[in-house]
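Quick note —
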Amino acid sequence: MKKTLLLVEALIVLAGTGCGNADDLVSNESLETLGVASDALAVRNCVPLSTLSVIASGHDGNVPEGTRDDRLDTRWSNLGKGSWIDYDLGSNRAISGVAIAWHQGNLRTNNFVLSVSSDGASYTSVYTGKSSGTTTTAETYAFASRTTRRLRITVNGNSLNDWASIAEARVCGAPTATSSVVWRGDFETGDRTQWSKTQMVSADRLQVVPSPARQGSYALKATVRQGDNPIGSSGNRNELVRMTNEKEGDEYYYRWSTMFAADFPSVKTWQLFTQWHHSGDSGSPPVEFYVNGETVNLRAGGTVVWSTPLVRGQWQDFIFHVKWSSNAGVGFVELYRNGQLVLPKRYAATLFAGQTNYLKVGLYRNSSIAPVGVVYHDGWIQGRSLQDVQ
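Predicted structure written out below.
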């Protein structure tokens, strides 16, 4: 069986047979066939590196080696919060993430921490998060590039029990190609100077804060109260503006992360958190991400092209690929969320004829909404290729 891993541009959906919550019933998990054995693991947004060896804090008979055999019907499993599995690259390498295919990943959400070490003794945490709970295919979790020898995945239980179970995992190498990054707005300056201007009633409405941050040391906290209207227009808003000046024929990738506060209002009306506004003064923008009720929507060319349930209190990672054009047969949008392709290329008019676009981030909503709204943004980057923004 080949051990070569493929970087693919489409998701491969692997459907598992139902098996209940075997982790709850037995201490030594029996092997369960997913009905698929491929000779290469499909990963997204990851250039996988070979590993010299793998160790773990323990196992129930499903050994650590089961996570690097290119099979989704084998795995590593261990009972108990804090169980870990540790991959040795053999020497210091530049890495920027890990791709993990979780056992029963479509049935439960796993809580985990990624940490790195050059000596196998002292470890530094680089990522804390949760799996999506929606797929058994590999999900990629990215962090700032660093040079190290070992990567450790520590699992702190899942949404059903205290088992740690990973079918496959691959350490991701850092991009090495020449970058064509256009702009960064990741707030790592500790202020708003990466952005062109603000539209806010006061500085406390667009705060650069150290926590919660999705990556690095800082993120943006955007707050809107009823009556906030800094530009004397419709609705209430506090937004950052970046004059990205997208024009006819431009094609870019954008990456960012958004988290809605635990008490984000649930109202049956529009609440925009990201928009590409046209250079004209009035009317709805050609491309916008917004919340309505309990649903997050992407509208392009006047049509909702993607929707997903609203999630509060968790970072949502987006990669947005756009061809900017006023011609609906030329312009398109493509969207990745939490490492998964959720909207394949969809053709739409992404510009208004004779106009350019610019980016607005924060919160802009219907003026009828009374409760305070808080949204966090982090990690903004614009590039000319997928690799630029990974």
